[in-house]
Amino acid sequence: MAWVNLVVAGLLEIIWAIGLKYTEGFTRLWPSIFTVAAMIASFYFLSQALKIIPIGTGYAIWTGIGVAGTTILGIILFSESAALPRLGCIALIVIGIMGLKLTSP
Questions:
Q1: Residue 34 · residue 91 · CB < 8 Å
Q2: For the chain, domain boundaries
Q3: How far out from the chain centre does Cα 66 lie?
Q4: pLDDT band per the 50, 70, 90 thresholds, residue 18
Q5: Which spans are transmembrane here (predicted)?
Q6: For the stretch 13-48, what's the b/e string if a residue is b when 16 or more beta carbons lie within 10 angstroms of its beta carbon?
Q7: pTM given for the model
Q8: Are 55 and 2 in contact (CB under 8 A)?
Q9: C-beta neighbour count of 101 within 10 angstroms
Q10: Is-contact 49 58, C-beta < 8 A?
Q11: Which of 49-63 are b and which e, b meaning 16 or more Cβ less than 10 Å from the residue's Cβ?
């Protein structure tokens, strides 16, 4: 269950990171409320996962999911660069996440 909590926390991190763009510096009420709620939920699920998963592994995977997902959604939603070197770096992050999962107790 800890790994499920960690994945949920990572997905919520993507949501709040993308949500920051829509808050326009926390000047828009509903996007701001939604973003803060996603932040709180993300931290909650991360804290639950870290009861079992080592902190270094859990934090790295949480941020890795967030970085990779936010970058991919940035490409899709905001027309950010999809240059091959950039995608290659995202692939390296995903490989690192898989490696940490496979080598963790």
A1: no
A2: 2-102
A3: 2
A4: very high
A5: 27-47, 59-78, 84-103
A6: bbbbbbbbeebeeeeeeebbebbeebbebbeebbeb
A7: 0.90
A8: no
A9: 14
A10: yes
A11: bbeebeeebbebbbe
Please give the DSSP secondary-structure letter assigned to residue 24: T
Ramachandran assignment for 54, one of left (phi > 0), alpha (psi -120 to 50 degrees), beta (any other): beta
Over residues 19-48, the mean pLDDT reads 98
Distance CA 62, CA 30 (A): 25
Return the DSSP state at 53: S
Cβ-Cβ contacts under 8 Å for 38 (sequence gap 6 or more):
12, 15, 16, 19
Rounded distance between C-alpha atoms, residue 104 and residue 1, angstroms: 14
| Count of all residues that appear for the chain in the document | 105
DSSP 28: S
